[in-house]
Sequence to fold (281 residues):
Amino acid sequence: MRIATLLLAATLPVVALSATLPKNEPVPGGVVVMQLPAAKLAPVVHFDARRIMVIRHAGHWYAITGIPLETRPGGKTLSVRQSGAPRLQLKFSVLPKTYAQQDLSIKNPKLVNPTEKELARIEQEQAHLQQVLNSWRPDANPALDFIWPARGPETSGFGLRRFLNGEARSPHSGIDIGAPMGSAVEAPAAGLVADVGDYYFCGHTLTISLGQGLYSVYCHLSKILVSRGQHVRQGQVVGEIGASGRTTGPNLHWTVSLNGTPVDPHAFLIQGPPSQPADAK
Ligand SMILES: [Zn+2]
Fold:
C-alpha cells in the first residue's frame, strides 16, 4: 500500500502534498502510518488515551502513531472520531523487534547511583520534560522529513537495551551522533522552541516542537543559540555539540518523541549521516 501511495503521490502536483509520510514500522519504538477512511475534516484519533497526529497526504488522511518501546507485540486499536459519524475502532498489529544489548561499566559509583538529593532533582526534571513532550500544538502541516542534525556518524543506536555494571537501565531513547566540541547542531525541521534547560542526565537541552505532538530533543549541548517560543527553520543552527550532563565525551544525544513516547528518529530521516561512506562519491 505504501508503494501504491508513493506512485500516486508522484503523479500529483506538489501542492497536493501536505507532508511526507514517515517510514511505517509497526514495532515497539517504531512509527505506524495508517490511512484513515475518507472524511471532509481531519478526524480526531487516539491511541491508549493519547492524541495522535493526523496529516493530509495525497488526498487521504493518515494517522501517525508512535509505539512505546515497552509495548507488547500483538493487536492494538486506534480510536477514530469524525464529525457526524460514529466512533471507529481501527485495528493494527505491533510486530516483535529485538534491540541489541549494550554493556557499560562505569567505575565512579557517584555516577552510577545518584544521591537522594540528585534523585529528587532527576524526578522533577523528568516530570517537567514529559509534560513538555505530552503537550499538543495544533499544526495542520507538521514537517515530517528531517535532516541529519550534526556533521558526524551515529555512534549509538536507538532502543539499545543497556546494562550498567550488570544492572538493567532504561533503553536508549534516542541516537548518539559523534562530533567535536563546538560543532554546529541544526534544527531537523521547521518548528517552535518548546523548552530550554540544564538537566542532570541530558545537560544543556533544547526541545523543538514540530507540531501535533512531535518533538526533537537535543542533549549534552555546550551552547544553545535559540530561546523558548522562537520559531526555527529547517537547517538553522540552534546549538553546539558539547559534553554537558551525564556523558563520557562530546556527542549529541537526539531523541524524537511522538505522542509522548520516544521513537526511532530514522522514521523521519530523509537521509543518513552526511559523513557515512554511502554518501561519499
Ligand atoms: Zn544517547
Q: What stands out?
A: Residues 1-17, 276-281 have pLDDT under 50 and may be disordered. DSSP finds three helices and 20 strands in the chain. The first helix runs from residue 2 to 11.
